[in-house]
Write a structure and sequence with these properties.
8 strands; Zn_M74/Hedgehog-like; about 10% strand; VanY-like_core_dom; binds zinc ion; two-stranded parallel ribbon; VanY/YodJ_core_dom; about 300 residues; single chain; 4-stranded antiparallel beta sheet; M15 family metallopeptidase
């Protein structure tokens, strides 16, 4: 475990991840034998954040968003796997987490109740030709081909309107998410870690279809202060034209499981994106999916 932790720390330091991002944060808990009562007792629903970034403050911010009363609602199809290395714990502790049937679908719904298979890795990851807040060609710069292409168009469209965006964090592998989560578990314990970090398999960043963006200056990257900026407003208004949605809209945290994340956009294709935007709904509502949290 220590080795894992050390490794994870190193990875994190290098990655600055937004764990929360969309579902990225909850944990694959390392502890195989959790004490029982937490199953329904403490689902932590909302973490916020993509912010896991490496800044310490991000964590506290996210953590504060935990909603005590919320309870994850198990679904009939829930699948609690029990393999030690995966999100089994997730299933066991955080109620029902079911594994999605078509992880490669452009419209796949991934959240705190719907997980990608442990082994899933998108087959068509590429490096979108857009600026990021870092220079390295590393994992978090990747996106699936169709999403990357749409992102390039979105960035170009923004520039025409005088809005200069930069990528902060896109794809994140299961292994990376696992390292991140385990590092937080080692630091704060599983229950607390789950309030601000996604269980491996449940982060939308693992789909290769989501990305956190910021202004080109990198300020407020995946942080609450991004809200209200001209970049955030532009995304709110125009992302759907390029097939992206603001995945965690304001006031929808009880449904998505995440607080408002104006920086986290998810590719779903233009038709669905426009409908979701026009109706002011979430991906969960679009699919009539069970709310992640209930109030
Ligand atoms: Zn994100």
């Amino acid at each position: 475990m220590n080795m894992y932790v050390k490794g994870a720390i190193a990875v994190i330091a290098a990655l600055v991840i937004c764990t929360g991002c969309g579902g990225n944060k909850e944990g694959a808990a390392p502890s195989p034998s959790p004490s029982s009562g937490q199953t329904e007792a403490s689902p932590m629903t909302k973490s916020a954040s993509d912010a896991s970034k490496s800044s310490p403050s991000a964590e506290s911010t996210a953590a504060s968003s935990t909603k005590p009363g919320a309870s994850v609602k198990p679904t009939a199809t829930a699948k609690a796997t029990s393999s030690p290395s995966s999100h089994s714990n997730t299933g066991a502790k955080n109620d029902a987490v079911q594994v999605v049937a078509k992880p490669e679908s452009i419209t796949v719904l991934v959240n705190k109740q719907n997980s990608l298979p442990d082994s899933y890795e998108p087959a068509d990851l590429v490096y979108p030709d857009v600026p990021f807040v870092f220079k390295e060609k590393i994992e978090k710069r990747k996106m699936r081909k169709e999403a990357a292409s749409a992102l390039e168009k979105l960035f170009a469209g923004a520039e025409k309107d005088g809005i200069y965006l930069a990528g902060v964090s896109a794809y994140r592998s299961y292994a990376t998410q696992k390292s991140v989560f385990q590092r937080y578990v080692a630091k704060d314990g599983e229950e607390k870690a789950k309030t601000y970090s996604a269980v491996p398999g449940t982060s939308e960043h693992e789909t290769g279809l989501a990305i956190d963006v910021s202004g080109s200056d990198g300020k407020c990257a995946a942080e609450d202060c991004f809200g209200g900026t001209k970049e955030a407003k532009w995304l709110e208004q125009h992302a759907a034209e390029y097939g992206f949605i603001i995945r965690y809209p304001k006031g929808k945290d009880a449904i998505t499981g995440y607080q408002y994340e104006p920086w986290h956009i998810r590719f779903v294709g233009t038709n669905i994106a426009k409908e979701i935007h026009d109706k002011g709904i979430t991906l969960e509502e679009y699919f009539n999916a069970v709310p992640v949290t209930k109030q």
